[in-house]
Write a structure and sequence with these properties.
It holds the Pfam family DUF1091. This is (Mediterranean fruit fly) hypothetical protein. InterPro entries: DUF1091. The protein is mainly beta. The protein has three domains: about 10-165, Distorted Sandwich (Ganglioside M2 Activator Protein, Chain: A); about 165-300, Ganglioside M2 Activator Protein, Chain: A, CATH 2.70.220; about 310-460, Ganglioside GM2 activator (Ganglioside M2 Activator Protein, Chain: A). Helix content is about 15%, strand content about 45%. The strands form six sheets. The protein has a five-stranded antiparallel sheet. The protein has a five-stranded antiparallel sheet with strand order 15-22-21-18-19. A hairpin with a 4-residue loop joins strand 2 and strand 3.
């Protein structure tokens, strides 16, 4: 597995200059000139109608797009005249002064009075440098600068900027006995572009059946349905002369038409390569109909191969932490050398109208346990109605036919999981490798922490 580190970039979208008091000030120039490598030149010229100015205050506010009705992410006020008079300046005021380029690219570099027009001339807005300084996440922001004189608002300059994050690529072989990754690289280039190179070594050849499943999920919304969930039969795709629009679009977006040797139908009897595919952020930005944010595109390559995995339950712990619930059964039964079953019977002393769960799936190791998935405050009653979380939906599909907890609230009597067993067919669909795993759950019933259940399994 290989993950490329990310880089945060601040991208200038535009600038707006507004004279609130035209009798006092007017803007003669307000320009942004895009340059290469996320650099833009900013030029602003302000004509002072009333001179001299003996009192000037700057108020800066940073607001995230879509949250204009909330308090700003950052706000700061600076007395310009007092700032230049002092030799020991405040740290934040000095950072803002240099970041805005007033120290080198403006004639507003002295204290009051100001008896001349104010100019910021070709200030180089460097997205790479500013991206390393700012402590904010991705998104689109507006930096409002309000200029006061004698406590009266005279002018407003709004700078729209977008934080763009070049993320990475991760490649994982779920079945190392069948395929491994020799190369998994992402090389950032200029102008929101990147080169992607992937090499897959096929251990078992030839491949006569291959399907790609692609899902697009927005970060922070992993428990909801993906924005895109699409499946392509690779062998049938290349055999057809008349391809569907979406299939052909995905094929070209993924770069298989020009930059890959996976450009023919089955069988595939050679290693699969995507060589220096130019991933264009600007081109894809125009093609994709989604808004701002951070997304994860997951592609899975499926091939029906015969596997005989074995999964055994090794330990089961049931703990009741409140009198409203009692465990009457909690044990593992060994059926044969390859099969074990789990039985749990939980008696409810009162009707349960609300169920919230914390669920963690971890991979156990002698040195360090790895947390694969964690879901906090999952509304189990709502999940039974919608079942949007794909990971929880997969886990639930394995035990629902063995349990009477297969409906929404309320729950009465007893909750039972009877002789739960996981077959080798179910395991072969899971994106996990051999090892030991633990499913840790804690349950809040009717608003009270009432129970903990921990299940440990060994997959080989």
């Amino acid at each position: 597995m290989r993950t490329v580190q990310s880089e945060k970039i601040l991208k200038l979208l535009g600038i707006t200059c507004e004279s609130v008091q035209p009798k006092w000030v007017n803007f003669t120039k307000c320009l942004v000139k895009p340059m290469k490598n996320h650099i833009a030149e900013v030029t602003v010229e302000v004509a002072l109608i009333v001179k001299p100015i003996n009192n000037a205050t700057l108020v800066g506010e940073l607001v995230k797009h879509g949250y204009e009705d909330r308090p700003p992410v950052a706000a700061y006020e600076m007395d310009c005249c007092d700032f230049f008079r002092k030799k020991r300046r405040k740290f934040m005021a000095n950072v803002a002064y240099k970041a805005m380029g007033l120290d080198k690219y403006s004639n507003m570099n002295h204290s009051c009075p100001y008896d001349h027009d104010l100019i910021v001339d070709r200030y180089p807005f460097n997205g790479h440098v500013l991206g390393k300084i700012i402590p904010f996440g991705n998104g689109e922001f507006t930096f409002n600068t309000k200029w006061y004189s004698y406590n009266v608002l005279r002018a407003v300059v709004r700078i729209r900027e977008k934080i763009v994050k070049l993320l990475g690529i991760t490649c994982e072989s779920v079945q190392p006995k069948w395929s491994t990754f020799r190369k998994c690289l992402l090389k950032p280039l200029k102008d929101d572009a990147a080169e992607v190179s992937v090499e897959v070594v096929l251990i078992v050849k030839p491949i006569n059946n291959a399907t790609i499943v692609a899902t697009l999920v927005k970060r922070g919304y992993e428990d909801r349905r993906p924005l895109v969930d699409y499946k392509i039969d690779c062998c049938a795709f290349f055999r057809k002369k008349r391809r569907s629009f979406l299939d052909n679009f995905a094929y070209k977006i993924l770069g298989f038409d020009k930059y890959s040797n996976m450009n023919h139908s089955c069988p595939f009897d050679h290693d699969l390569i995507v060589d220096r595919y130019p991933f264009s952020g600007r081109g894809l930005g125009k093609a994709t109909p989604f808004g701002n944010g951070e997304f994860a595109l997951t592609t899975q390559c499926l091939s029906p191969v015969k596997v005989n995995p074995v999964i055994r339950f090794t330990k089961l712990v049931c703990n009741s932490t409140h009198p409203m619930t009692v465990y009457e059964k909690c044990h593992i039964v060994r059926i044969n050398s390859t099969t074990t079953t789990v039985t749990i019977k939980q008696k409810l002393m009162q009707t349960i109208h609300s169920v919230y769960a914390n669920v963690s799936l971890i991979q156990l190791s002698k040195s360090l346990n790895r947390v694969l998935y964690t879901f906090n405050n999952v509304d189990a009653c709502a999940f039974m109605l919608r079942r949007r979380n794909p990971v929880l939906r997969l886990l639930f599909s394995h035990f629902q036919k063995f349990s009477n907890a297969n409906h929404s609230c309320p729950f009465k009597g007893s909750l039972i999981v009877n002789h739960l067993a996981i077959s080798d067919i179910q395991v072969s669909r899971l994106p996990i490798i051999a090892g030991e795993y633990g499913l840790l759950t804690s349950w809040k019933l009717n608003g009270v922490n009432a129970a903990d259940v921990q299940v440990f399994v060994k997959y080989s």
